[in-house]
Amino acid sequence: MSTVHLGLSLGHATDAEAEHWLAAHLPAVPGLVACTHNVPAPYPHVALSVAAPDGVALPETDPDLRAAADEAAARHRAHVSGRAVVYPGVESLTGTLTVADLLDRSAIERVTVLGGTDAAPDALIETRDFVRPLLRAGKLELVLVPIVGGRLAPFEVPNPTPCCADH
Amino acid sequence: MGHGHPHTHDHSHDHDHDHGSTPDALDLSIPDSELSPADVSRRGFLRGAGLLGAAAGLTGAGTAGGVLGTPDIAVAHGGGQRTGDFSWKAGDHHIHTQYSSDGKYRVADHVQHGLAYGLDWLVITDHGGATHAKIGVDKVNPDIVAAREKFPEALVFQGLEWNIPAAEHGTIIVHPGKKEVEVLKEFETNYDGSVKGASSQSAANETLAIAGLNFLAAAKKNRRVSDAMFFANHPSRKGLDSPHEIRGWRDAQPEIALGFEGAPGHQAAAIPTSAFGPGAGRGFYDSSPGADSFPAYPLESYRTWGGFDWMTATVGGLWDSLLAEGKPWWITANSDSHSVLWDTSIRGANSDFNANGRYNDPQHGVKPDVTAGDFWPGFYSRTHVGAAGDDYRHVMDGLRAGRVWVDHGGLIKSLDVRARVQGDRNRRGGTPLGGVLKVRKGTAVEVTIDVELADKPNWAQLLPVLARVDLIQGAVTGAAADRDVFTAPKTRVVTSFEVAKGKKTASFTYSFGRVSSPFYFRVRGTDGNFSQPGLYGAAVDPTGPKLDVVGDADPWLDLWFYANPIWVLPY
């Protein structure tokens, strides 16, 4: 079964809004990768891309946002950029894990540490149950930062108010 | 003292001939026909070197060939030719009160604390917004006027924290006067990104930001206020201030748009929760790129480095890219004080901010606030301005001239940096911070750095110990072809000086040799507790500031000072 890269734009203003939509609407298909993308036109917003088996359908994108959706799909296809929200293994990245475990359990291919230090395989990552790796230079990469106690954590801090708290 | 400027004097038309070295050759508002023969010749040299803008560069943003040739040089460096006998005034241009929707304190609370912690000047900068524009901007003024009377030893400016359209926040400072409120209110009503719904990234909103700066320039020119200026605040926090926007502000109004915070406020924000701190990112820098962020900024830009913003902390980075163009662009350091860590006060009961434009006066809340991330003005961050007099005017003149250095935690007592013709040891000689030393090609030039070391404890009861001073040098390469560039590949740390222990002062010199092409240099120093190679490698910055650890960056153990640049311009 071949993989297709689909773009979608609903004009979401923030990652949290886009994730909220994904949580409610994305079909549960094994192997699926869904990303958010900051796009500048026709106005700055967050577009979505999904790499999925042929046959997965997404809602229509408004013609005004079609170019943004296409750009999101192209970035994902080329693995140049994108922030992965849904990817194989994401559900198992909770609590505190070693670097080796994180790489083993998920589709994340590489970890780097902001500021240029290395992450040893047995270094501990506090996932905060919120792990959003980035497509960069062809790989799905998780950028980590040093945190209190000599541990590491994903660069991106979870939204302090969970996106679905109102429901 | 003895500064010759009358108080009403308008800087945009100042061609002060009292200074030893005239800037007229650089001031393109003066036609060649009105220059002295010597200045015609000098201008010719500069033009030949590509350091003067094309004739059209005078008025058009983005067309200035080299900023050393734009008119502001006459202002920025007219005073900069003076040396010696400046009175260094410590201050803070970023302070919130009960007239901010996220504030708490009275004006008097901040002024009283700032004075106690050694400040000479403070700028009250409540947030722009609908309620503030309608009510707060008027109502805070009597409190500021009262503070000026009650605390005559403090200079208290009324300013504004502007929501820059399409960008981050910024400080607006106006000179006190009959129309200070009127001008601030009109500015906020017409040009604040929140009031106007113009915060998102767009060409129209970028234009509105420039229009706001133009308004301030006009208010000054028309003498509605005798002076006005703008500094960008926490510029890297969310990636919103793109390089072309920063260049655009500066080039549109080089006498109004003067610089950015080298270090943001909220310096207590990364004190660990185990030490009863908020455990957040230092400076509350903990964002990720969003839809309005400049996409080329790296993730490194979203965090602080040794307490400083990435734009300033990175040797060969964004700040250096502006200096390498010859653009005067200055750094400051402020508290951004809203709520002070471990303070026991709480917002006044029964407050109705929307109706009253303010919270009621704070009350005693008994328990220390362990979630706040701020210090009182003067407690940790200080902006030191070399002023030629003791009034509002001279503090603003010093800020505009870039005669400014900043420190954290009282790291040093004083700093005197001068570019000199080699061998000049005249106490009043040389070119101070923010200035331009113009010498004939082939002249040997050196820098003298004189530091008075801290001789009393800071407000954490620690005696700071300066360990190292770094000298950073970069070539002036003229106007950047790419307005979004944020690197300066010809800038690096050229030498570092170890500071001997147990002395009261430390003095260093460094020779640049016989100079033939334009360059600038700047100085920073540290207690040496934390460092790592800079983002462009150890060859550029072997011992730069370290990435601040989220939730574990005790600000008192990682102290730095940064000085503004001096240019050396051979002709």
From TrEMBL, chain A:
It comes from the Bacteria. This is Uncharacterized protein. It comes from Catenuloplanes niger.
UniProtKB/TrEMBL annotation, chain B:
Residues 1-33 are annotated as: Disordered. It comes from Catenuloplanes niger. Gene3D superfamilies: Metal-dependent hydrolases (3.20.20.140). Pfam families: PHP. Residues 7-21 have a biased composition (Basic and acidic residues). This is Polymerase/histidinol phosphatase N-terminal domain-containing protein. SMART domains: POLIIIAc. InterPro entries: PHP_dom, PHP_domain, Pol/His_phosphatase_N, Pol/histidinol_Pase-like, TAT_signal. GO terms for molecular function: 5'-3' DNA exonuclease activity; 5'-3' RNA exonuclease activity. It comes from the Bacteria. Residues 91-166 form the Polymerase/histidinol phosphatase N-terminal domain. SUPFAM superfamilies: PHP domain-like.
